[in-house]
Design goal:
With 113 residues, the chain is an all-alpha fold. The chain has five helices and no strands. The chain has one domain (2-15, 25-110). Helix content is 71%, strand content 0%. InterPro entries: PBP/GOBP, PBP_GOBP_sf. One of its GO terms (molecular function) is odorant binding.
Length: 113
């Protein structure tokens, strides 16, 4: 279940990142994703204290929260690899369905990389 959630987040993130050309907007999107992740995987004060003392709490939520930066880096690499989709001609205009299908196709092709 968690695996599918992550795929969904990465897919939606990549669609949004492809739309964004502005670096500041991109940073804000990353920050929002991390905040959303923190809501899904909340940590408490004792977790924060352990982290300050350079110890990793043995809780799934904390581990998942720390997994996000590497997933975001992979999402950025995916975005760069599939950026060409924005330049493809599609027949449904701004509806975005065909472009989403192209993004999916690209993601399947690039998944092995």
């Amino acid at each position: 279940m968690f695996k599918y959630f992550l795929y969904c987040v990465i897919f939606v993130t990549n669609i949004e990142l492809m739309k964004s050309q502005d670096i500041e907007a991109l940073k804000q999107k990353y920050a929002q994703i991390i905040m959303d992740c923190a809501q899904k995987f909340p940590i408490d004060q004792s977790d924060i204290e352990q982290l300050r003392s350079r110890q990793m709490p043995d809780k799934e939520n904390v581990k998942c929260l720390f997994a996000y930066p590497s997933r975001l880096k992979k999402a950025e690499q995916f975005t760069d690899a599939c950026k060409f989709v924005n330049d493809e001609n599609v027949s449904d205009g701004s509806k975005g369905c065909e472009r989403a299908a192209l993004i999916f196709k690209c993601s399947v092709e690039k998944a092995a990389e």
